[in-house]
């Protein structure tokens, strides 16, 4: 075997390129018709790498507790990786099919503007840019995970006021293998999983995701995220043009932000492909752009 779970834990920099090659090969195999779509391949790889980081397998060394995965044989560990890739690939294939089939319904009248590309909703993962551009980036990423994890923990705690949404998120965390976080939250919130499945779980999950995204944006100290959040909060509908919203820079420059800060944040959002702005005093956006801004998150 080119690498083992032990190698990933204690020799992350040396074994990561081998892990990436293995995941890339399997992602292409399971993605079928999307095997040459770089975005989809990276999404699948990033999901598995994130999972390994959260579990403490990738680069955890002795700082994170051993898990059941550490006890697997090499063959069993490779089977786990392959199954993780396969499950995420199937998920991406299903989502792509849904996005393509229901784009008009999701975007509504924005279709008139040609803004129906399902890939337009792609923004940076909550866990940072994935996969890592270099093996050396792993160490920095792991350190940042702890701070982001605490923020996420706070935002999930807020969901305790909506039990069904909390159930949906806790189940999702359990499915991705974040058992330690689930156990910690369950103890703090006196939480237990429902004995019978909720028939509206998907709807509750969607509502929970919206609240989590909003909470994460509120907790962020990243200037670009702050400006994105304010754009979603302070824009008003254009008086005459359909599906157009607008806000001026002065309205965004409140509290701890000055006009220069706002302009810098707006420029970054343009770079991210989330905004069309050419240094005008009034920013105009479509409803589709507002939707993508509400999903935007970026670490420091």
Walk me through what this model shows.
The protein is mainly alpha-helical and 300 residues long. It has three domains: 5-135, no CATH class; 143-219, no CATH class; 222-300, Arc Repressor Mutant, subunit A, CATH 1.10.10. The chain contains twelve helices and three strands; from the N terminus they run αααααααααββααβα. It has a three-stranded antiparallel β-sheet with strand order 1-2-3. Strand 1 and strand 2 (244-248) form a beta hairpin. Helix 3 (38-54) crosses helix 4 and helix 9 (223-234) packs across helix 12 (287-294). The protein is globular. It starts with a helix and ends in a 6-residue tail after the last helix.
List keywords for this structure.
60% helix, 300 residues, mainly alpha, 3-stranded antiparallel β-sheet
Give the helix level as a range of percent.
Answer: 55-70%
Overall geometry: globular
- Poorly predicted sequence stretches spanning 5 or more consecutive residues: 100-136
Total number of distinct structural domains: 3
Whole-Å distance between the termini? Answer: 37 Å
> How much of the residues is beta strand, in percent?
under 5%
**What's the helix-strand series?**
HHHHHHHHHEEHHEH
Mean pLDDT: 80
Count of DSSP H/I helices: 12
Largest sheet: 3 strands, antiparallel
Structural class: mainly alpha
Number of strands: 3
Can you list the strand order of the major beta sheet? 1-2-3
Q: Whole-number radius of gyration? A: 21 Å
């Amino acid at each position: 075997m080119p690498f083992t779970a032990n190698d990933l834990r204690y020799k992350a920099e040396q074994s990561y390129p081998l892990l990436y090659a293995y995941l890339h090969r399997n992602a292409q195999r399971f993605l079928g018709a999307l095997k040459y779509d770089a975005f989809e391949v990276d999404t699948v790889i990033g999901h598995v790498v994130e999972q390994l980081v959260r579990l403490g397998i990738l680069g955890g060394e002795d700082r994170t507790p051993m898990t059941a995965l550490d006890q697997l044989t090499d063959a069993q560990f490779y089977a786990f990786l392959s199954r993780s890739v396969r499950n995420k690939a199937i998920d991406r294939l299903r989502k792509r099919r849904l996005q393509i089939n229901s784009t008009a319904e999701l975007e509504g009248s924005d279709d008139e503007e040609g803004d129906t590309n399902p890939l337009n909703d792609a923004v940076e993962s909550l866990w940072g840019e994935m996969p890592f551009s270099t093996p050396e980036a792993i160490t920095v990423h792991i350190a940042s995970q702890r701070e982001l994890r605490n923020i996420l923990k706070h935002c999930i705690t807020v969901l305790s006021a909506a039990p069904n949404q909390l159930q949906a998120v806790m189940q999702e965390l359990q499915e991705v293998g974040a058992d330690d976080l689930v156990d910690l939250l369950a103890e703090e919130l006196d939480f237990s999983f429902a004995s019978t499945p909720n028939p509206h779980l998907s709807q509750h999950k969607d509502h929970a995701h919206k609240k989590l995204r909003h909470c994460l944006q509120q907790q962020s100290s990243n200037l670009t995220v702050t400006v994105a959040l304010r754009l979603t909060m302070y824009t008003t509908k254009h008086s005459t043009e359909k599906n157009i919203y607008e806000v001026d820079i002065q309205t965004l420059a409140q509290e701890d932000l000055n006009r220069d800060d706002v302009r810098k944040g707006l420029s970054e959002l343009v770079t991210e492909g989330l905004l069309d702005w050419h240094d005008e005093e009034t920013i105009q956006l479509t409803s589709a752009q507002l939707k993508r801004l509400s999903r935007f998150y970026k670490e420091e």
